[in-house]
Specification:
The structure is a homodimer. By secondary structure, chain A is an alpha/beta fold. Helices cover about 30% and strands about 20% of the residues of chain A.
Chain lengths: ~375, ~375
């Protein structure tokens, strides 16, 4: 089957770019001798996970318990569930761990830590550190740090942080500075815990931008990153990868033409693309995505999806070019703003090696 | 099972509000003696479709062929697929029609119309009219109107339009004016076709706001509307329904607390809520959703989801109130900006009649 035969909208994954992005992440990590614990929140696919692990048996990060259960079913046991746990969710974690998994959880909440510490079956738990994002976690100097470790006691497995605010940085130097702040925050927390007599087996940091820009991983035992695998227009804008390193696109059909208004309609709208507008905050606003040819080429210049309705995308053609010679039914590919959210609406990847043939179909695990 | 026992995030549907919203739509339509062809793009559920049809055997609108196939499998045969068709997609429509369905398609493209007209099996087709939204369709005075009808010839089934630009209106009077423009556009197209000798069995208009505000349906044979069933913060802002008529919410767990910053974290983020920000354009910006109690009460005042990460929602508590007495694991409900997109990430509804018990679980048909 060829890409041109697929029903639309559909998610297309270019395997050569995926492989290149994975190599681009492996190189600096090998230089620094730090282990990657790939975050599968973007890919949600065992096929991608195996490539990301590069032959290692496991050690992954997930964002939902549905992902955890799915990856356990494929034999991956070493999993970090990197969203603050609740007491209720420990039941499902314990069940999976009882069936052979080793899922670690994270917390920054004293009451939850006490529940984990006293849980009838062992569940490893890490303390979440806030390195500046102001989302989850406690500051490294917070007095609660030692209280949390004490509450977790035999289940305490380490510290972790995530510099999600690196996404708001404008250039590599800024991201490198955030990466260093990310490292020092979590290492400082580990030092305080070490000084108080706790073994801190895992000291984990990571986001794709900071992992690729970090000047040092001293004191870090592992990094977590996910979006680097596929890339997107936003990550290209902040320099995580180059503009041609985006492996994921949405295949769409032209469903209407307005040559006089210099625009056309496609059947990829707000669900197929997501309403993420992250490039709006960067130097170049790509609307709801950049439109390329069926073969993935930049044949339409600056054409972007200007409006996104539930199942309609309104494409503004490049004003500097003649109206594209596209008929209703012809296919295009849309490069996404934010690959994690665009992928989320699709249940599978159509994998291609040559932008012509579908080489494989890889399912995704969506939902919760 | 109670709502409080559900894994989170989860989609909660309040059946009494759903019934009320359906009655609120039925009343003006009964007065005007016009038929509703409910749009199931929002609900994507046979259980909701049956309620929307109120005992009639069918006559629905869909936004994807996956919806069409799903509803056909439940015995609904009279279906309008209201997104511009492509020649390739006719194959699936023909297959479903061959199995007993009667799916009508829409087009505004002469080449596609010629394919439909010459298709080996009959597929009814309507001409899409642009009444001012500038998305799909031709203007009612466009010379192409008669050419399209000629190309469709024996398959020509009528004209349809959609005033999606009613969503940008500020008050009921503006929406009523857009509704009248919607009506006159599609009726004018029908008149031109009638004058040229074509029978025009279907003259279809509709959006939830215009259907509820329309002063007249003269010349209209049916209306299409969907979002009115569930409602959302945006539709409340433009007056489609009242602020207490929102039937759909996302159940979420508190996963972190920052009393000193007057905010807390929930496990409903950009996927569970969508990144739709439609209330940003209205008088009151609700961020990524308004936070209510587990019982659906306005217990947290103006608390909204201020930031939405993939699986994290950052809730800003009401500055005029003390920090909510919520522990990690406690549950809240998030009222969405745009119900169609919020529902899209979830595979089922947990239906409640009393905001306590789960009375039913209704699956959804997502994807394409």
């Amino acid at each position: 089957m060829n890409l041109s035969d697929l029903p639309t909208p559909a998610l297309v994954l270019e395997r050569p770019i995926l492989a290149r992005n994975m190599a681009a992440m492996a190189t600096p990590l090998a230089r620094h001798r730090v282990t990657l614990r790939p975050h599968l929140k973007t890919a949600k696919s065992i096929d991608v996970a195996r490539l990301a692990l590069g032959g290692r048996p496991g050690g992954i990060t997930v964002s939902t318990l549905a992902e955890a259960e799915y990856f356990v079913s494929y034999g991956i046991t070493d999993i970090l569930y990197a969203v603050g746990i609740t007491p209720e969710k420990l039941v499902q974690v314990a069940k999976l761990n009882g069936a052979g998994a080793d899922i670690a959880v994270i917390t920054d909440d004293p009451e939850t830590a006490a529940v984990i510490g006293a849980y009838p079956t062992p569940i490893r738990a890490m303390i979440e550190i806030d390195c500046g994002e102001a989302r989850g976690g406690i500051l490294p100097e917070d007095p609660a740090l030692l209280l949390l470790a004490a509450a977790l006691a035999p289940r305490f497995a380490g510290v972790m942080t995530h510099a999600g605010h690196s996404y708001a940085a404008c250039d590599r130097a800024q991201i490198a500075a955030i990466a260093e702040a990310e490292r020092t925050a979590v290492v400082r927390a580990a030092e305080r815990l070490g000084a108080a007599g706790y073994a801190v087996p895992i000291v984990s940091m990571g986001s794709s931008p900071t992992t690729l820009a970090a000047p040092s991983f001293n004191g870090i035992t592992e990094v977590r990153a996910g979006v680097y695998m596929f890339g997107d227009l936003f990550q290209a804008a902040i320099g995580t990868h180059g503009p041609d390193d985006i492996a994921l696109t949405v295949l769409a059909s032209v469903i209407g033409r307005r040559p006089e208004a210099h625009r056309f309609l496609i059947d990829a709208g707000a669900i197929a693309l997501s309403k993420d507008r992250s490039t709006q905050a960067t130097a170049h606003d790509y609307g709801y995505g950049l439109v390329r040819s069926l073969a993935g080429q930049a044949s339409f210049g600056t054409a972007i999806v200007q409006r996104a309705y539930q199942e309609h995308g309104v494409v503004g053609a490049d004003p500097a070019r003649p109206f594209p010679a596209l008929k209703v039914g012809d296919k295009v590919r849309v490069v996404p703003n934010h690959t994690c959210l665009t992928a989320a609406a699709h249940d599978r990847y159509f994998v291609t090696d040559d932008n012509v043939e579908v080489a494989a179909v890889w399912p995704r695990v969506n939902g919760w």
